[in-house]
Specification:
This protein is of the alpha/beta class. The chain has two domains: 138 residues, Response regulator (Rossmann fold), CATH 3.40.50.2300; 63 residues, Arc Repressor Mutant, subunit A (Orthogonal Bundle), CATH 1.10.10.10. A five-stranded parallel β-sheet has the order 2-1-3-4-5, sandwiched between helices. α3 links the parallel β3 and β4. The radius of gyration is 17 Å and the shape is globular.
């Protein structure tokens, strides 16, 4: 029996995913968390066999939790399950140490397959994404849209997403353990990369992008 810990800020989604997993005879949900703090506590307390991790949490974010766990030497299998585009986030989370990425809109059969694959110590990506990453590796360059958020660094992407959720500079600084000055610097870099001229337009851009995800 493999014990899975669900880390997601939406209780209804966690409930549905838990029911799906519990229907499998060899899988069990041993706990649920909505924040980074609760996740860290439950990982230590429950010692799960695998994490299913969302990118957006109530406090903090999944990408930073993933990086923190890997920096601490954890080899716990982690499947990132998010609503965001695979093309934009899959490579980021794999580079950060995740064992797979799956979109929340994927078919139930794919979710169970992804879970089992990660539990086997393998990497899970959709066939399309796996092919795209192989193509990138062999061609030594990424095919990117010069005006899209994929141009942002991981930290810039975190700031951009938090702006899209309506967070103030002060709150972003607190969430990411940064100074307000550093957050402002990230905002300037984001504006430059996205060809945005002012903070109002940046916020509008981020909110609009988040609403379409």
């Amino acid at each position: 029996m493999s014990n899975l810990l669900l880390i997601d800020d939406h209780p209804v989604f966690r409930c549905g995913l838990a029911a799906l997993i519990q229907a499998e005879p060899d899988l069990k949900v041993c706990g649920e968390a909505a924040t980074v703090a609760d996740a860290l506590r439950l990982i230590k307390q429950l010692k799960p066999d695998m994490l299913i991790l969302d990118l957006i949490l109530e406090e903090g974010d999944g990408l930073q939790l993933l990086k923190h766990l890997r920096a601490q030497g954890s080899t716990l299998p982690i499947l990132v399950m998010s609503m965001y585009e695979e093309q934009l986030f899959a490579e980021r989370v794999i580079k950060a140490g995740a064992n797979g990425y799956i979109n929340k809109a994927d078919a139930i059969s794919n979710v169970i397959y992804a879970i089992r694959r990660v539990l086997q110590g393998r990497i899970y990506l959709s066939d399309i994404m796996a092919e795209a990453l192989l193509h990138k590796q062999f061609n030594h360059k990424a095919k990117q849209d010069g005006s899209g958020p994929e141009k942002l660094s991981d930290r810039e992407m975190e700031v951009y997403m938090m702006l899209g959720r309506g967070y103030s500079t002060k709150r972003i600084a607190a969430e990411l353990n940064l100074s307000s000055k550093t957050v402002d610097s990230h905002k300037e870099h984001i504006k430059e990369k996205l060809a945005i001229t002012d903070n109002t337009s940046l916020i509008h851009h981020a909110v609009t992008w988040m609403m379409t995800r």
